[in-house]
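User: Hey, my collaborator sent me this sequence without any context and asked if I could get a structure. I don't really work with proteins. Can you help?
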Amino acid sequence: MDPDGQRDLPALDQQRLLSYLDVSDPVAWEQRWRSSQLLEATLNLWPASASPDWLWSLGLPLLTEAATDQGQRRLIGLSALPGCGKTTLGHWLERAARQLDLSLQVVSIDDFYFEAERLDQAMGGNPWGVPRALPGSHDLPLLLQTLSRWKDGEQVDLPQFDKSLRQGRGDRCGWRSCSAQILLLEGWFVGCQPLAQNTSIELGCEHLFPSIRSEERDARAAVQVELRRYEQIWSELDSLWQIAAQDFRSPQIWKRQQEQQMLQNTGVALDSDSLKGFIRMILTAIPPQSFDRIQADVRVEVDPDRRLRQLRIRQKA
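Assistant: No problem. I've predicted the 3D structure and written it out in structure-token form, which is a compact way to encode the shape of the chain:
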């Protein structure tokens, strides 16, 4: 990444973001980061082609928010569709936080998948043949209990999930301790809201090709029921950032690229049929309108090339 490269976000959007973060002097804010050692030490974690907006309008603002009040524990949510770049952002945030001696840790909601046997039971019979990822595949009591204990000031153990195990179906692979003051919870449907009552389950199907099948429609209705169980988790969030796709079909591109990278890194990835099923699930299981209902404090819209195009701030209460 070139931090001095072309930025795509309108300057006014950037100003609104920094105002939301109570940054009174945007020029001085940027200069402080440029004069620190952070950029030099961490830029290698970004792809060379990554837009500098990811640094200036996501990474550094998230660090700024995390550093505002280290006196109490705060849970920040990060919602983004698979393959858009949130994992890279999370890795950068953890490295940058260590560089700054900032007590921050990133955890994926996917680390709270059920263990193998129960995961297979939960995902059995879904019309897309996916082994995980759907609402209903996570151990919500464990997640809620862990977050509650962490917010009470305890050191907690976070599960870890390796998606490359069991021929790509994945399994838990251990635990890691967490006593950080700031925890960032990321996932593809974090904050996602079920549709309003009496809304047709076929809402948002016009973009699908081929058209939605009856078994997919039934599964989509079941997912809406599952989403309501996650609302208790979302209520624990102190703030929520969303990376939203301008074109909901973008995950077709992003997920394929993500699997290619996973194959290079681990030697394991979803086979062609499984990948098609996964992409179809992402496009079908949750209506786009459920993502539009996410109550994000900061919403950044990205195009299919992962370039940031628009930023919206929810007005503070």
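In plain terms: The chain has one domain: 11-103+185-313. You can pass these tokens on to your collaborator as they are.
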